[in-house]
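Database export, one record per block. Field names are fixed; values are copied verbatim from the stored entry.
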Amino acid sequence: MRPGYHSMPTERWASEARFAADVAAGAIPSYIQVAHYDNEKWSQTPLVEQQHPALYEMRFCQLAHAHGLLCATGPARDLCPVAFPRSGSLDNCYLSHDLAGDAARYADYTDIQGQVNELQGTSAYAAFIASAAAQAKAANPRNITLGNLSATPAGRSVSPSAMSADARAAFGADASHVGAST
């Protein structure tokens, strides 16, 4: 590990309701330091949570903080057709409805799930991540914003050099702080 970097034990929940039930049951392992809310358009996230992402992100983070946990949020772009029907492309909807800002408002960390934009080239990826990160920072200046990268967005391969170029373009020449996930 590089000097100055450290990891924190994190657990992911795709449902605020499941997280609340786990908290109530005392089922959160004591070593967990960060609770991550990964709300997406999938069966793991209840429809009502997909329809109202900001409300459930707020509830999730408030519950996490009340139990001494840091909170990470990472709403997927695919929530747009459910939460904001007829709002155009997923990127346009995500930005025009400020999903990153809403996700960051109560969170310690926000994960911008823009990795599919890697397939459109470095400038498209960088533009989306930079715009969403600016919205997150405007909503909560203390929020640490991460940009997702993937070696296989939408099942297609992206080279390590392309991923590095994407990260550097989105967050500047010293992109060593950019988060990556697969």
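Remark 1: Strands lie at 10-13, 34-37, 70-73, 109-112, 144-147.
Remark 2: The two ends are 19 Å apart (CA to CA).
End of record.
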